[in-house]
Amino acid sequence: MQERQGMSLFLDGNAFMCNCDNLDLIRWIKTTKVDLDSQSNNCQLSNGTVIDTLTAYNSLSNLFADCKSTVWLTFASTLLSTFFIISLLLVLYSKRWKIAFSIYGVVQRFIEKKVRKRYKYDVYMSYAGDIVIWIKDVLIPRLEAEWGLTMCIRDRDFLGGESLLDTEAERIEKSRYIIFFITPEFKSSKDCLFELDRAKYERVTRNLDKIIVITKDIRITDIPLEFSYI
Prior knowledge:
Helix content is 53%, strand content 15%. It contains ten helices and nine strands. α10 (190-204) links the parallel β8 and β9. α9 packs parallel to α10 (190-204). Residues 119-230 form the TIR domain. It is found in: Membrane. This is TIR domain-containing protein.
């Protein structure tokens, strides 16, 4: 149907800019076989001058000299950006473990700060008998002075006049870890057995991160059975 009747296109009144974006349109107007209302339509240059498309077509090399450089500039920018992204990805890949460890360190320090805000003590000590002398003279100085941990021990940090059981429960709740020193006197100590029950409760409620057991002068068979459940 188009071959019999042809195609007509009316552009009169449709002004457009004579710039690089419309360069193909200017060429098409001149070379197309479509019947146009005019072979010459007006277009406006970037400086505001209005010319006809025929003049623009005949002056392509002068009016649109910058178009090729713009194309090459776009191509060069795209190529450079691609090269930069690939180089960056290669660097990140080669340093992936270092980056991962750095991120892990930052996260770990953040978690440690959160933990220290949550817990008042790092370690609660549960013991009975003469082992308290070794705890005070040897263990506490090392853990507090050298490792920077905050310890809680019954014979030093409990205030007089407080309910002993309530204080033990409160201090265990505010401690991140608990260390049990299992000695022959442990099984007969009501305080130690209460602390053991409390540790089991805190473990279930996930308040305690770790429970550490240290034995001294005692057989495995004499260790309280309750330790099997924590």
